[in-house]
Specification:
- The strands form 2 sheets. The protein has a 4-stranded antiparallel β-sheet, sandwiched between helices. Strands 5, 6, 7 and 8 form a 4-stranded antiparallel β-sheet that branches.
- It starts with 7 loop residues before the first strand and ends in a 9-residue tail after the last strand.
- It has a single domain, classed as Gcn5-related N-acetyltransferase (GNAT) (Aminopeptidase), CATH 3.40.630.30.
- The protein contains 3 helices and 8 strands, in the order βαβββαβαβββ.
- By secondary structure, the chain is α+β, with helices and mostly antiparallel strands.
- The radius of gyration is 15 Å and the shape is globular.
Amino acid sequence: MSTPTHLHWRVQRFETLPPQVLHDILRLRVDVFIVEQRCLYPEIDGQDPEALHVTGHDADGRLVAYARILPPHAGGPPHIGRVVVHPEARGRALGREVMRQALLALEQAHGSARSALAAQAHLQAFYEGLGYRRTGEVYDWDGIPHVDMERDNAPVSGTA
């Protein structure tokens, strides 16, 4: 995979995702979260139809970064999850960029970048650098230590 210097970002609702893009999203998530991380769990969890999907494609049209935004439930903030960078595109700060794009999408869709996420525990410092704070103890989720985190409505520009 060529070194992406500029990605084309899109934010789409499920029903507007082209079939090839949906395929690429699901493949990337399965390749990383199930195969690479050796974690057997139901990746297709029924929440994609209600989510916003943030995709970053390189100049060749390949999906290299992705995040999913779930709408708020029970008075809580929207939830960002399934944040992933293609293995061949890692080490280029694309994790920060996909999160910045997700936070901008939150501001556009909900008027605020306030959000929650369930971070893999080893990524806590990464998310703290984006304005998230830990809200609970480390817990096991499908064999991987996680921690719940929330972000207030701090400006998104501070995450780049």
